């Protein structure tokens, strides 16, 4: 069976902060997460993926700002995530972008069914990232 692992790890936490791990299966609801937690892990052995997001403030942002799951279709989330991932990966390999923000590429392929939960969390991480770091990942800024 083809092993597919998506590892998305952003480490921009203050050295004095102490992070806690939160494991969230695809069927669990994130609304039970504490605002003090800094790590979200989504894993599902049946489709062999893992997403880890380590980002101070993301959990509490999700509780306050994320729209309910019923607001989005899976198709919408997949389409937006392809746009976000494409631009993110371009910035990882391109000079001229802050290396502290764009640490590693994201292995997210169009046509693979990652499930609703992965797409939901990944989409909201990109929205959070844009707001927190004043970045715009959906508009391509060509260099002249």
From TrEMBL:
Domain of life: Bacteria
PROSITE patterns found in the cross-reference section: PROKAR_LIPOPROTEIN
InterPro entries to which the protein is assigned, alphabetical: DUF6146
Species of provenance: Hanstruepera neustonica
Pfam families the record matches: DUF6146 (PF19643)
Protein name according to UniProt: Lipoprotein
Taxon lineage: Bacteria, Pseudomonadati, Bacteroidota, Flavobacteriia, Flavobacteriales
